[in-house]
């Protein structure tokens, strides 16, 4: 909003933030830290559609899952991103050599490609990790980015599809 107002000072100071998937997670964090980070603006509310969450739980489940699952490509993307940002996350201490060899496959297409064909959708998750994976730094970084502990003062709409096969931890509400 600061950049937009620098271009056009007529843009208002009230805002709503909304996102889907990784953007949903970003919307939640924006709603949590935005009011302190940019107090000159007024957050009216936020919406998070299928926000990324529980990635640590999904990672732990992948370690013991012997059949292909659509969760694996998402985990591979997340692990690469965390390794790029957190120097203490070393993929060679987490992933098996064949998994590291296939990481470039994720950059050759879209997430839809990774979810429909190729190595990541066809592989057993448990075989993609070292038997003695050093998960401590990864799990710590994931916990720091878990939106479930955020404090959000603005009205928040959180939507998640109960039938989403990619989020096995979800359970329909009674």
Explain what you see.
- This protein has 174 residues and is α/β, with parallel strands linked by helices.
- It folds into two domains: 2-52 and 147-159, no CATH class; 55-144.
- The chain is 40% helix and 11% strand.
- The chain has eight helices and three strands, in the order αβαβααααααβ.
- A three-stranded parallel beta sheet has the order 1-2-3, with helices on one face.
- α3 (55-62) packs across α4.
- The longest helix is centred in the N-terminal third of the chain and has 16 residues, at 22-37.
- It is elongated, with a radius of gyration of 18 Å.
First-to-last CA distance: 40 Å
Report the order of strands and helices: HEHEHHHHHHE
What is the number of helical segments per DSSP (H or I, 4+ residues)?
Answer: 8
Helix content: 40-55%
- The helix-and-strand class reads alpha/beta
Given as residue ranges, the uncertain stretches (5+ residues, pLDDT < 50) are 170-174
- Whole-number mean pLDDT: 90
What is the topology, as strand order, of the major beta sheet? 1-2-3
User: How many discrete structural domains?
Assistant: 2
> How much of the polypeptide forms β-strand, as a percent range?
5-15%
Q: What is the gyration radius calculated from CA atoms?
A: 18 Å
The number of strands is 3
Sheet of most strands: 3 strands, parallel
Shape field: elongated
